[in-house]
Amino acid sequence: MLRLEKIGVDQLRIGMFVSELDRPWLGTPFLLQGFEITTEDEISQLRDLCSHVFIDITQPAKPYAKMPSSSPRRSNRRDKRTELLRGRAPTRYVDQKTLYNELPAAQEALQTLGETVRNLFQVRRADTTINVAEVKAAVEPMVNSIRRNPDACIWLSRLRQQDDYTYQHSVACSVWSVALGRQLSLPQEDLNSLALGGLLLDIGKLNLDPELFLRPDQLTPEEWVVMQTHVGLGIAALEGTGVNRDVLDMIQHHHERFDGSGYPSRLKGDEIPVFGRIAAVIDTFDAMTSQRVYARAISPSEAIHKLNKYRDTTLQAEIVDEFIQAIGVYPAGTIVELSSGEIAVVVAEGRVRRLRPTVTVLLDADKLPVDKPYVIDLRERLNDGHGKPLDIKTSLPSDAYGIDIADLTI
């Protein structure tokens, strides 16, 4: 079982596993939240930043060879991360509830949000003015749920029934945006903006011919030009509604790319507002993990791998890194094979031990359904029934062994 001990930074030594700091991780040079100290440089960095830390005393300190300092690179990463918070006071979030205790509230919040989105889509198809106050009220319970514990909303957002892609994409992008904002230590008002912006990213598509989105084959150049107009249509739909600049930035710039290859304005780097860069990451991730008529859904872990390939090309590296921290190396909904041979689905990431999430076992080592699915917290369960180390062997495709996570309950 995970056991944390508070120690002064002068007591740190190589081989210790640092689980928590005395400050938010944002603005520090450490990419992983929860890491094993392997260099003297990491100890120096921790002493510069903190007065105390929390170490996992179930992980015995291991000896490591002294490695060269990497301060300039780490400092550069820290500076870029800090830029994301420029002009905003960081807010420290801690889990107030467990995944299971938060599930009922999260379910109610997403149901309310879903009903509001359906009504919103009907309004826009009728070309009626959007009631922004109503939408803001609908996102608030979801934002509050993610503030308490993001795992519940993240898990529920993965349980997609066959439904209208634009609807599902809107709700999921709202959830991903808030989860990322929480990870970035953004204040409550920014979480609300992220929720609203994520929800309305593709609102302009409702003014286009639905047949355009049901085509299984590639769009013609003329159709692609029409498709791109959904950005401007979305901005036009919000004229006079009083939404703030951050929300508009998300809608206007979620298809811009960090290397200048996006649309509509081919902006690059810092020319793209921060909220637009955030929107680009969450929109890309959700599109890849969604079933569309022209592309199959890939697993969340596959999508994470692809996001890593896009770092500092089409997407900003620091935002990609923070998003991965927010949802985990094995995000909720990832189907995995354990070292025991059992097949499981990840239901919650481990914010302290990133490679040891909570999973629900569905198939035994012979790949046959278990009598009753059961939950394993890999942070606490270190060995299998034979005394051998238990961990994740590999992630699997989203349709592995005919599993449909929409049928699962936890």
Kindly summarize this structure in a few lines.
Pfam families: DUF3391 (PF11871), HD_5 (PF13487). The chain is α+β, with helices and mostly antiparallel strands and 410 residues long.
List the main descriptive attributes of the protein structure presented here:
five-stranded antiparallel beta sheet; Hypothetical protein af1432; alpha+beta; globular; 13 helices; four-stranded antiparallel beta sheet
Uncertain segments of ≥5 residues (pLDDT<50)? 63-75
CATH class of the largest domain, named Mainly Alpha
* CA-atom Rg in angstroms: 22 Å
Kindly identify the CATH topology of the largest domain.
Hypothetical protein af1432
Amount of helix: 40-55%
Instruction: Give the oligomeric state.
Output: single chain
Spatial order of the strands forming the largest sheet: 8-7-6-5-9
Mean pLDDT across all amino acids: 85
Helix and strand content put the structural class at alpha+beta
Count of structural domains: 3
Q: What's the N-to-C terminus distance?
A: 21 Å
Report the order of strands and helices. EEEHEHHHHHHHHHHHHEEEEE
Described by the principal axes of the CA atoms, the overall outline is: globular
CATH architectural name of the largest domain: Orthogonal Bundle
Chain-wise SSE layout:
Layout lengths: L3 E5 L8 E5 L13 E2 L3 H10 L2 E5 L14 H14 L14 H27 L6 H17 L1 H9 L6 H19 L4 H13 L20 H8 L1 H8 L7 H9 L20 H15 L11 H10 L7 H11 L7 E4 L4 E6 L9 E6 L5 E9 L14 E5 L14
Antiparallel strand pairs: 1-4, 2-3, 2-4, 5-6, 5-9, 6-7, 7-8
Helix pairs in contact: 3-4, 3-5, 3-6, 4-5, 4-6, 4-7, 5-6, 6-7, 6-11, 6-13, 7-10, 9-10, 10-11, 11-12
